[in-house]
TrEMBL record:
One of its GO terms (biological process) is beta-lactam antibiotic catabolic process. Gene3D superfamilies: DD-peptidase/beta-lactamase superfamily, Integrin alpha, N-terminal. Residues 1-27 form the signal peptide. The keyword Ion transport does not apply. InterPro entries: Beta-lactam/transpept-like, Beta-lactam_cat, Beta-lactam_class-A, FG-GAP, Integrin_alpha_N, TAT_signal. The keyword Cell inner membrane does not apply. This is Beta-lactamase. Pfam families: Beta-lactamase2, FG-GAP_3. GO terms for molecular function: beta-lactamase activity. SUPFAM superfamilies: beta-lactamase/transpeptidase-like, Integrin alpha N-terminal domain.
């Protein structure tokens, strides 16, 4: 904080003040401070459920001076208060007047008497002996409409979600309840979400933003390749369990404030969530749908948060204080909902929000219920939220019946534009993407992931999480198979560990569904030619499914390719050391040899099947082959029954590359 924002409180509240209490961030009083020269001074305040703002104090408060906040959306109401101790060490509390949120100075001050700090009507309320030391408090009124008006304008994603299958029941219930309500429910791992809006979907977050701040701190730690520090944990625990505002502000400031929160929203897929332009975390604007997306990152392995961070965050949200265990916990059995609530009085009533993940039984779901514009009591809004939560819980199986999995994007389409791309990895451990043009050509390569020098195998995973982008599998030098999700910004997430003990496989192949069950598969070739199948779920879990026989005894290099015979199963290509390529078609638990063979592949240094590069209707996978030093790259088009035709020079370069996806 700058000295302008932390001008000594003693310099602004009266002429008879003594020295300030120890507060290293504060400047000494200046000759021109109010009470001496009449100049305005500023003080950083922490407002409950809102965050920090700067309070400008004009004149001497003990003699009728005025106060105003720097940023729009907050205004002082009533007379100031004080919390501290007197000369005898007795606690002195004078509550500020007015209805709204309480704001406390972040610095302490010392005065000869309470009358030197506060207007007489306030000072007379406390029996304080002599010198007092403590913090100024004020009541602030929140104008959320002014905050929303200052937020960036962009369409929300509510239109992308379906109507709740039990919408009529929700509508009837909310018709009898006051205020505006936004409801969203999401089935984690399916891409399915539903919304209902009464009056307005957009709301200020109040304290539910603390879950996003926690996620941002976790992503910062992951980006640095470390666990959460003891300091970070010491702030996260009170922030989530007791909704501590000071701990929240410390974490928010350590991240970098508003800009860091907006970056976190982008990474988390919260497209309709914007940090407050004034940098107050509790006045972030959002939608219920975005909040269910946020909670999904804790409910499922989406590639954004590590397993240890997800489970830690859920443990925090399952152990909130009893006074805050309300809202979307209504309905499910006790202890089954990870929850965070937020509440904030505003000019026209209360903002009361509740978000969570219900994990009990067959139909787990994330839920967000955001309410505002109710001039009644906070308890009225809590009752509204809990009524909605009970309706969702009662009808949860209808969500499963209404769910169909999102179609997967093309295997090898790393950026989700519908065209297969070419991925390659250099000797220095940089993963590059060569964007495909849909007709077999490529753009200049671009590095999207460094630090992969220890990995010994790379391959397309297919679109694991059904977001329209193909993901990447990689085997580390210690034999652990890892998964990296492709992101909307064109990069890759951290490498999530899936399963150890892959060092014994001479080659691997992924990206497709071999057995036709709807899940992606990974094949591993053992030294004797046996092929072992592993199943990769939409949640990013890898399990061993069994042997597929030993079709590739003489073919040490393998690739999975699209369905070449139209039976709904992906098929297999293998390359022998002598340069022969052969195709096998998949059965239920084995592969059958086809007549599709070709020779001469040993003249190339790198050979791979990234996918259907020219987008044919039959989706036959093509073959990329690079000369020994990568200076020339040829394309072979896939033909019926697994054959190829070519070569066709691409003009691309794979110089310095050691692996193809």
């Amino acid at each position: 904080m700058t000295s302008r924002r932390t001008t000594l409180l003693t310099a602004v509240l009266g002429t008879g003040l003594l020295a300030v209490a120890s507060a290293p961030a504060l400047a000494a009083p200046s000759p021109g401070a109010p009470g001496t020269s009449g100049a305005d001074s500023e003080l950083t305040m922490l407002c409950d459920g809102v965050g920090e703002d700067v309070l400008t104090i004009t004149g001497d408060l003990s003699a009728g001076g005025s106060m105003s906040f720097e940023q729009r959306g907050l205004s002082v109401v009533g007379r100031p208060g004080f919390t501290g101790t007197d000369a005898d060490g007795d606690r002195v509390v004078v509550e500020p007047t007015g209805e709204g949120v309480t704001c406390s100075a972040r610095s302490t001050s010392t005065a000869g008497s309470l009358a030197e700090l506060l207007p007489a009507r306030q000072a007379d309320q406390a029996d304080a002996d002599g010198q007092v030391e403590g913090r100024l408090t004020v009541t602030a009124e929140v104008d959320a409409d002014a905050v929303a008006a200052a937020a960036p304008r962009q369409d929300t994603r509510s239109a992308a979600a379906a109507a709740l299958p039990f919408e009529a029941e929700v509508r009837r219930y909310l018709a009898s309840r006051p205020g505006a309500v936004g409801v969203a429910v999401r089935l984690p791992g399916t891409g399915e979400s539903w919304t209902y809006t009464k009056t307005s979907a957009r709301n200020v977050t109040a304290s539910i933003v603390k879950v996003e701040i926690m996620a941002a701190v976790m992503m910062r730690a992951q980006d640095a390749g470390r666990s959460l520090t003891s300091w970070e944990r010491s702030k996260i625990e009170p922030m989530i369990r007791t909704s501590d505002n000071a701990a929240t502000t410390d974490l928010f400031n350590s991240l970098g404030g508003r800009a860091a929160l907006d970056r976190a929203s982008d990474r988390l897929g919260m497209d309709a969530t914007y940090a407050d332009t004034g940098g107050r975390w509790g006045l972030t604007t959002t939608t219920a749908l975005d909040q269910t997306t946020l909670m999904e990152h804790f409910a499922r392995p989406t590639g954004t948060l590590s397993y240890s961070n997800r489970t830690y965050g859920l443990r925090m949200m399952r152990s909130v204080s009893s006074a805050q265990d309300w809202g979307v916990t209504a309905g499910p059995p006790s202890g089954q909902v990870a929850v965070k609530n937020g509440w904030l009085p505003r000019t026209d009533g209360w903002h009361v929000n509740s978000i969570g993940w219900q994990s009990y039984g067959e139909a787990d779901y994330t839920i967000g219920v955001l309410t505002h514009d109710d001039p009644g009591a906070m308890s009225t809004q809590i009752s509204t939220i809990e009524g909605v939560s009970r309706i969702v819980w009662r009808n949860r199986l209808a969500l499963l019946e209404a769910t169909e999995p999102e179609p997967r994007g093309r295997s090898g389409d790393l950026d989700g534009d519908g065209r297969v791309d070419l991925g390659s990895v250099s000797a220095g451990g940089y993963l590059y993407v060569h964007r495909g043009d849909g007709s077999g050509g490529f753009a200049t390569r671009r590095a999207i992931k460094p630090g992969l020098g220890s990995y010994t195998w790379f391959g397309n995973a297919g679109d694991v999480n059904r977001d329209g982008r193909s993901d990447v599998l990689a085997r580390d030098g210690d034999g652990v198979m890892r998964l990296m999700y492709s992101t909307s910004s064109g990069g890759l997430t951290y490498a999530k560990a899936l399963r150890p003990w892959f060092a014994s496989y001479t080659d691997l192949a992924g990206g497709y569904d071999v057995d036709g069950d709807g899940n992606l598969d990974l094949l591993g070739r053992l030294p004797g030619g046996e092929v072992v199948r592993f199943e990769l779920t939409d949640e990013g879990e890898l399990t061993k499914a069994g042997s597929m026989g030993s079709p590739v005894r003489w073919y040490p290099e393998i690739d999975l390719v699209g369905d070449v015979n139209g039976d709904g199963r992906a098929d297999l290509r293998g390359r022998a050391t002598g340069g022969r390529m052969r195709t096998w078609t998949a059965g239920a638990s084995s592969f059958a040899t086809t007549s599709a063979t070709s020779t001469g592949w040993d003249r190339y240094g790198l050979v791979g099947s990234p996918g259907d590069l020219n987008g044919t209707a039959s989706r036959q996978d093509d073959v990329i082959a690079a000369s020994p030093y990568g200076s020339a790259v040829d394309l072979y088009y896939g033909t019926g029954s697994g054959g190829t035709s070519g070569p066709v020079p691409t003009g691309a370069s794979l110089t310095g590359m050691e692996h193809l996806l």
